[in-house]
Specification:
Elements lengths: L7 H51 L4 H4 L13 H9 L21 H33 L2 H5 L1 H24 L8 H4 L6 H9 L1 H13 L2 H24 L3
Helix pairs in contact: 1-3, 1-4, 1-6, 4-6, 4-10, 6-10
Length: 244
């Protein structure tokens, strides 16, 4: 059950209605843009959550394995609400990977293991963005111009470009050092003891701050320049590799 007496089924019906209303307001071009972004969203969410699951498993926790999260099947990782939010608000999430820190091996501290597992999600997004950038540049380099100027080619290139941007966006967004985002656990081990305790004691306050900057769109405005810079840098890297 969710808060305010709304269960999952009712919530998803409400989301479905809102999605339909949004689509009707987008017009033909907007709907096509949304449809082309669906593969990118599914890929970004899937690799992000798989990164968490795989890393936790490698550190000794078999919980993700037992729950079927060591998979690249989007159906194992997509949360309908998070998917809808990512499509229409450009800030969303996947189904959280459940971790049991008690299962970690003791080669490193639990805190450091949590940080590594948390960073694995954004890292997978950045790696995926680089891979799709290389694919994008490879097509430009070797494909016949008639391919990427054709309707089919335009669709393929649009999906690839969207996948690059979506992965960079999801990766950067999750590095914001506020709970419940990955960044809050990534940066915790490097804080001095007193700062760490201060942060932990005020975790609920930081949740509220996160909700405020998310709902008001401040988060998007803060990370947009970073996303743009990273996208440009990765694209320049790909073009230099292929001599474009």
């Amino acid at each position: 059950m969710f808060g305010f007496g709304i269960d999952k089924k009712t919530l998803y019906i409400i989301i479905g209605i809102l999605v339909v209303i949004s689509l009707l307001s987008y017009g033909t071009d907007g709907i096509i843009s949304i449809l082309l972004s669906i593969p990118a969203v599914l890929i970004a969410i899937t690799v992000h959550e798989f990164g968490h699951a795989f890393t936790a498993y490698k550190l000794g926790d078999d919980t993700p394995l037992r729950q079927g999260r060591l998979s690249l099947n989007p159906l194992d990782h997509v949360d309908p609400l998070g998917l809808a939010m990512l499509l229409f608000a450009h800030i969303g999430w996947g189904k959280p990977v459940q971790i049991d820190p008690r299962n970690y091996n003791r080669n490193i501290s639990v805190e450091k293991a949590d940080a590594i597992v948390s960073f694995a999600g954004p890292l997978m997004n950045f790696i995926t963005a680089i891979i799709f950038t290389l694919i994008y540049c490879c097509i430009i380099k070797f494909a016949n111009a008639s391919f990427y100027l054709s309707s089919f080619g335009v669709v393929i290139m649009s999906i690839i470009a969207s996948t690059i941007t979506m992965n960079i966006g999801l990766g950067v967004f999750n590095l914001i050092p506020l709970p419940p985002l990955d960044g809050s656990k990534i940066f915790l081990p490097i804080l001095p003891y007193n700062a760490k305790q201060w942060f932990i004691e005020r975790e609920q306050m930081f949740y509220i701050i996160f909700l405020i900057i998310w709902i008001t769109g401040i988060a998007g405005r803060l990370i947009s320049p970073i996303i743009g810079s990273m996208t440009d840098a990765i694209l320049k890297l790909g073009m230099s590799i292929f001599g474009l």
